Every structure is written in C-alpha cells, then in structure tokens.
Amino acid sequence: MSDSETPNTGDISPNTPAAEFAAWCEAEFERRRNSGDDFDEGHYRKAMQLVIERLQRLEDEGRA
In the chain, how many domains are there? Predict the structure, then answer.
C-alpha cells in the first residue's frame, strides 16, 4: 500500500469528530483484517481518508 493511501492520523486534532472517526476506522480495519474475510484494504483506506478530510474541513469551518 502506498503512503498516499494511508491516512495521516497524526495531523488530526485530538478530541474531534475526525479523531474519533479515525480511531474507530483503525479498530474496524484491524477487525476486518483479522476476520479471515476478504476486503479491499486500499479502498477502505481511501474511503477513510476522504471522510476524515471532509470532517476536518467541516471542523475548520466550525460546522462539526
């Protein structure tokens, strides 16, 4: 997986909706990875990054 597909959760302010979502996504990612079922890790990471970026924009605008 390339670095562009991996969300940079270190840039997320703590105690924000984006941080809470990122923490949930990481736990869900590990659960899915360990479930034995197939899932597309790259698509998961891309979708996660899109939502985190959107949440951060909303937070910056004071709307989240």
Answer: 1
Q: Please indicate, yes or no, if residue 33 is contained in any of the structural domains.
A: yes
Nearest Cα neighbor of 49 from 39, 38, 61, 57 is: 57
Reduced to 3 states, what is the DSSP secondary structure of residue 61? coil
SS3 annotation, 5-17: HCCCHHHCCCCCH
Q: What is the pLDDT along the chain (64 residues), one digit of tens a residue?
A: 444 444 555 578 888 999 999 999 999 999 999 998 999 999 999 999 999 999 999 999 987 6
Boundaries of domain holding 49:
13-60
Rounded distance, CA 64 to CA 54, Å?
10
In a domain, 38, yes or no: yes
The answer to whether residue 6 sits within a structural domain is no
